[in-house]
Design goal:
12 helices; 0% strand; 60% helix; globular; binds fe (ii) ion; mainly alpha
Length: 321
């Protein structure tokens, strides 16, 4: 952001109501955030000039408190109706998001698997999911920033409600990460203490030029996978009596259903606009851009509720994609 635009927007923002008075406050759900983040940010002095600018600032932030803070401020300002998309801003999102030095990123097969019956095992699970949620913050903002400018993406311009959806996703991913990071602290652990892998970010990068492909891979493959595995993880965590972690997994599961729904809605919208048949287009995108396996069992009920019906993914799994 230029200093001049920052100054101009700071003075505009000084006249705004506080975040808690704002129409966007209802979606923020302060009671679901950890205690130390439950307050509404005071967004008057944020200096964020557009949604794209806020998305890029969040992506660039290597400090995780800053990434969360910028995410909360940008999402609140957007849902208060005070930001434009900023698609004409020439700044490009970074190729890689800002991240702290730790965790060390290693190939997925180098990560140790541990039973969640032990506290060490539960810490490893919470750490792995926290890493996924951190990636998810950046992936949501990358969709906003990369596809904010209709002239750069070759497809149709997206309506404001498209950005409503992805801004909400980014905010909820920041909430998930914050809840897990605090839960790790309860267990005398911290995010960064264990290794992690870079698979999610890598899986998304081949689709930076094509929003239809990006939506096929990020929400409809990667996030839909979360719907498949979370119920059994939740049952295992409840079975060992870790109710605090279970409460977090319940919030994540409910919110992720909404994230897949946002993906399915806009994937279908783009297909309609381009005269494409959604299920076969999805299969083509997955075969072109996704290298991993599509493993059953699928949570068909949750996937259907989100608008991702079996006609999309069954053929890919049975073909051993
Ligand atoms: Fe999440
Ligand atoms: Fe998500």
């Amino acid at each position: 952001m230029s200093r001049r635009s920052s100054k101009r927007h700071s003075s505009i923002l000084a006249d705004l109501p506080t975040a808690s008075d704002a129409p966007g406050a209802a979606f923020f759900k302060p009671h679901e955030w950890p205690d130390d983040l439950a307050h509404m940010p005071d967004v008057k002095q944020s200096g964020i000039a557009s949604l794209k600018e806020g998305a890029i600032a969040a992506l660039q932030a290597a400090d995780l408190d800053t990434k969360i803070d910028v995410t909360r401020r940008t999402a609140l300002l957007w849902h208060m109706g005070t930001l434009g998309v900023g698609g004409a801003i020439g700044q490009k999102p970074p190729d890689r998001p800002g991240r702290p030095d730790k965790p060390v990123l290693v190939p997925p097969n180098k990560l140790k698997k541990r039973s969640i019956r032990s506290e060490r095992g539960r810490i490893a699970l919470l750490h792995a999911i926290a890493h996924i949620e951190l990636n998810a913050i950046d992936l949501a903002w990358d969709i906003v920033a990369r596809f904010a400018d209709p002239s750069s993406m070759g497809g149709p311009a997206m309506p404001r409600s498209f950005f409503d959806g992805w801004t909400r996703v980014a905010l909820e991913e920041a909430k998930h990460f914050s809840l897990l990071r605090n839960r790790l602290a309860d267990l005398n652990a911290h995010y960064g203490m264990l290794d992690a892998h870079d698979g999610l970010w890598e899986a998304a990068q081949a689709t930076g030029h094509d929003l239809t492909a990006r939506l096929a891979i990020v929400p409809l493959i990667l996030e839909a996978r979360g719907l498949d595995i979370t119920p059994s993880l939740l049952a295992q965590i409840e079975a060992v009596g870790d109710q605090d972690s279970a409460a977090i997994f319940r919030i994540i599961y409910r919110d992720e259903l909404g994230h897949v729904a946002v993906g399915a809605k806009w994937f279908r919208y783009l297909c309609l606009k381009q005269g494409l048949e959604p299920a076969s287009t999805f299969q083509h995108m997955v075969r072109t851009y996704f290298r991993g396996p599509l493993k059953p069992p699928f949570n068909d009920f949750a996937r259907c509720r989100a608008g991702l019906t079996p006609g999309f993914y069954r053929a890919l799994a049975s073909a051993g994609n």
